[in-house]
Amino acid sequence: PSNVDDRKREVILLIQQLCAMGKNVQLPARINLFRILVDRGILYAVQWALTQHEKHLVFTAGEILTVLLEHGTVAIRNHVLVQAMALGQPTGQGDGQAAIGPQWPGSAAAAAATDPAKAPPKNVMQPPFKETLAQVLCRMLANSQDLALQNLITDSLRLLADVPPPEPMAEQQQQQQQQQQAGPGPKLINR
Prior knowledge:
Layout: H1 2-22, H2 27-39, H3 42-50, H4 55-86, H5 108-114, H6 133-143, H7 147-161, H8 168-182, H9 185-190
Helix pairs in contact: 1-3, 1-4, 2-4, 3-4, 3-6, 4-7, 6-7
């Protein structure tokens, strides 16, 4: 197990160097690079590093996560959503519930606890972690005494949770489209 953990640590350091080099690439290629990394499952390695007790490893994973969030926030949000669905947690996608935990009524885990017939099949690959990346970050924020780590985690959670406001031009175009669809209506009455 020690040899495997050493290799995982080396992979995290390699990913950090790759992200640092990726910052120097032109914007379209940089965005594509970070999207591909997220699509290939790099966040599982980052999540593993965040759960370790070695401070330098946690900070390295936090730095990688920040770079990925700066260039691919939507992909990371999708990753967290997929994790929640794989864990059987409510996702807020039509079930009217927030993602609170695996035993929330209506989740697959709760259904399996009440009815063994609803448990997932044994041959289906289970998620590598028992909690989502967002849950790991929240737990770390609550348990950490290190202000630098709290700041790093807070920035990551802010980037993950922030939804940009709609662009003013998009709002104007949307209003114009709605007016065109509504027909002449009030304009004819005023004339």
